[in-house]
Design goal:
Layout: H1 9-21, H2 26-53, H3 66-112, H4 114-117, H5 119-135, H6 141-161, H7 166-190, H8 196-212, H9 218-265, H10 275-295, H11 300-327, H12 329-349, H13 355-372, H14 377-451, H15 459-494
Helix pairs in contact: 1-2, 1-3, 2-3, 2-10, 3-5, 3-6, 7-8, 7-9, 8-9, 9-10, 9-11, 12-13, 12-14, 14-15
Length: 495
């Protein structure tokens, strides 16, 4: 099946003009005409949907394509041109019919008098009649079948009944056979032609040529005809299958389009009370319209009617929506004014650092916002963004402030814990210091007691002096630690 290339309106009109000025082929003109109106239909549907979506009244919608007037003029020109061509063709066909009818009468007379008049005289005359027949022109199809059948019959009778010169007859048979074999080859090539309509039309031309040719040798008549018929049957079978498949596809397309019509018609608009509901319904219908565009043509007898049904269903729905929006236009404007006032209040509070009080105020504004209702569609996003931006500015600042406060509190606790630990360590060292100091005093007193009257070489005294010296070193070490701790504690206290 041939795939349609997507063209713009301008390109379609240009091709249509070129075709009509040139070949004016009926199938191509019809194809371009259908493509133009299909493309127009899509443009109108898209424009209508955008018009209604913008909140406009469906009754005020109008879309005029300047190209349509050009197309109508071109089609009228094509119609006039084709009518003249048809009339001329009919006149030429009638003249050709009369010429061939005269030739047939002459051939009939020759066949009836063949034996009486002799071969040498009749054969060249028959050859002349055959040539004249081929050059006589095209005959109307309604008259052609019976005419050519009689022509073939008289030709075959002449060659079968008349005892002509074998060389001349065989030569004529040979030329006819070669011509028919050429037609067989052309027909067989048409089997692979991708465009089935083109193949079918060309096959009809080949059949007309076949009928114009004279007979071949009796032993080849059936063989060459069966070959030509086999190729013809193959093409006709593919052509019939194509139209059968297309018919089935069109029937399926009709069912799909009917289902879409039923879906739209089933929507109960009487229960729609909110803009949210209308948005949901609109989005769904727009999806169905896109599906419709992709489905393809329904059967010709149903195509216009089903399209009208679908368009009427869509128009009725969007007209109801338009009425709803129109009736609520003043309410929408009032709601917009209220929401803008809330935006101004929120913006006035966004830089406040009174976190608790301002939070309560903004929450109250947000609750009030929810009670107001919808605003005009074109302003909805902007006013909402304005309000949210103001609220977010405050709550983000509050979040950052609370986060910093938490961090400070955590640091203070950590610092306090650290100071307490240092104080405990200081107290511990002081206790050790005092204990060593007391022990040194005690041992020095003991040495003083033992030294009275004792020999200078008393080993006990020497041992105690050694111990005292060790204690003094420990005392000095503790003193240094205590001094360092006191410095750190003083620094923490100052900070």
């Amino acid at each position: 099946m041939e795939v349609e290339t997507t063209l713009t309106i301008e390109q379609i009109v240009a091709q249509l003009s070129e075709e009509i000025k040139g070949n004016n082929a009926r199938l191509e003109v019809t194809r371009l005409k259908n493509l133009f109106y299909k493309t127009k239909e899509q443009l109108v549907e898209n424009a209508r949907a955008s018009w209604v979506e913008a909140g406009n009244d469906l009754q005020d919608f109008a879309l005029e394509l300047p190209q349509e007037a050009v197309v109508k003029e071109l089609l009228e020109e094509s119609k006039t041109k084709r009518a003249a061509e048809i009339q001329q063709k009919e006149e030429e066909q009638e003249k050709a019919y009369q010429r061939k009818k005269d030739l047939l009468d002459r051939l009939k007379k020759i066949v009836e008098q063949a034996e009486e008049n002799g071969v040498e005289q009749n054969f060249p005359l028959v050859r002349q009649l055959q040539q004249a027949w081929r050059e006589a022109g095209e005959v109307a199809q309604s008259k052609y079948a019976s005419l050519v059948k009689a022509y073939q019959t008289y030709n075959e009778q002449f060659y079968d009944l008349v005892k002509i010169n074998n060389e001349l007859r065989d030569y004529d048979f040979k030329k006819n056979l070669e011509a028919k074999e050429r037609l067989c080859e052309l027909a067989e090539k048409l089997i692979e032609e991708p465009h089935l309509n083109v193949a079918f039309q060309k096959l009809q031309v080949l059949h007309n040529e076949w009928r114009e040719l004279g007979p071949v040798m009796r032993e080849y008549r059936e063989i060459v005809w069966e070959r030509f018929k086999a190729a013809s049957d193959a093409i006709n079978k593919k052509h019939a299958a194509y139209y059968q498949d297309r018919k089935a596809q069109e029937t399926e397309n009709l069912s799909k389009k009917e289902a879409l019509c039923e879906a739209i018609e089933a929507i109960d608009l009487s229960v729609v009370r909110s803009y949210k509901q209308w948005d949901e319904i609109t989005n769904q219908v727009l999806q169905w319209q896109e599906e419709w565009k992709k489905i393809g043509f329904a059967p010709k007898k149903n195509n216009v009617a089903i399209y009208e049904r679908f368009r009427n269903a869509c128009d009725a729905l969007f007209e109801t929506k338009s009425t709803f929006y129109k009736q609520n236009k003043e309410l929408l404007s009032a709601n917009l004014a209220k929401k803008r006032e809330l935006c101004a209040q929120a913006e006035a509070l966004k830089d406040s650092t009174d976190w608790n009080a301002t939070t309560q105020k903004l929450v109250a504004l947000q609750k009030e916002w929810k009670t107001i209702g919808a605003v005009p569609h074109k302003a909805s996003d902007a006013v909402w963004k304005r309000f949210v931006t103001a609220c977010d500015a405050f709550f983000d600042a509050k979040k950052d402030a609370l986060k910093q406060e938490k961090a400070n509190r955590k640091a203070a606790i950590k610092e306090a814990k650290s100071s307490l630990s240092l104080r405990k360590e200081h107290d511990k060292l002081m206790r050790q210091y005092d204990k060593i100091k007391q022990e040194i005093a005690t041992r020095e007193n003991n040495i003083s007691f033992l030294s009275k009257g004792a020999k200078s070489s008393n080993p006990l005294v020497a041992q105690m002096e050694e111990t005292i010296q060790k204690l003094k070193e420990d005392k000095q070490s503790l003193y240094q630690k205590i001094v360092e701790l006191e410095k750190q504690l003083n620094n923490d206290a100052q900070n």
